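Raw record, unedited: Lytic transglycosylase
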Amino acid sequence: MRLASLQFSFLSTFSLKGGVFRTSLALLFTGAVISSASANEHFSSCTAALADRAKQEGVSQQIIDEIFPHLVHQDRVIELDRSQPEFVQTFPGYFSKRVTDWRTEKGKAMYAKHEKLLHKLSDKYGVPPHYLLAFWGLETNFGSYKGKMPVLDSLATLACDKRRSKYFTQEFLVAVKLMQREKLKKDNMVGSWAGAMGHTQFMPSAYTHYAIDGDGDGQVNLWESEEDALSSAANFLASLGWERSFRWGREVKLPEGFNYQESGYKNRKPLSEWHEQGVKKADGSPLGEGETTAYVIVPAGHNGPAFIAYKNFRVIMRWNNSEFYAIAVGVLADRIAGASGIKATLPDLPAYNRKDIIALQSKLNDLGFDVGKPDGIIGPATREGIRNYQISNNMIADGFPGLEVMAALNVELERDKASQS
């Protein structure tokens, strides 16, 4: 039946008798059932193909029989994969929710609990205890929340979805092999909607290549063993290139009139050059004159804190490719080790609606500051466009979408529209 006919049946129910109403609903319900049946048929044929591939790659028939007949398509996983956040979180909101007194004190308690192991790992891999604890705290609140989604179902759902099928097919098959290798139970393999697992939220490929037996029981179990999780995190970070005896970076104080065009990863310089430019530690003491390469980060614009990032900062970003995350790991690690945290005051910035950023990007494009297709994401191209706009308008060129930039571009924020309605 044509869509127009269905729409007419449904819209006519308010003037027609109940029998027609029931008939129109039945037609709609039948269409939904057919659609659902088609989706289930696709998932079944896809998982059957995955079972064949798993067998070809050495998975036992026992494991295949244990897993594949019981896989369930997770509609919620697809919803989350497609969803876009309504708000764009700025650094103050992100940082204040993650680097907390609770995480600091819990990290210190976990240090006392695992002190011997942590120092053993530090000696072997070069990663100090407080960094391992910071990763653990940010990933799962020290194991208190490791996710609740069935990992194999989630990965199979994503593997059978065309958007990122190749990547998730590989991760799914690795997870199946991991279950066989470590004698894990399917029902115990829970994690994030995208398949990250255990205390340290490793994807299956990271679990397979970098997870190690830290408690000596002959099994690598990142869900149940804190020792396995901490040992695996140390091994992973060392494999990513962690440099022994170096810190992540530090908070700094920038000199008056600092040229913010010199911030960012592209502007890496030896510490001696930053020292010559007047960059100091946050307490005002000299930064140092070594030849270690570093770069300046201003995550909340010129009104917020500034940081200088060393090579290990980029290692942290290989775990999670976010400057906000890397700063949070570094500062939380410092606090667990006894430091007081950042000295600068976090500016009071709104959590921008995605529509605000899209409007900003559209304005910049209209004025000739090309930032690409407006998408509501504050990426490198958008920051560069903001910086170029600021330069041309004699503003501080920090590349940050502060309220003064929004006002100058006549971007009416969604929060202000709501307050006027």
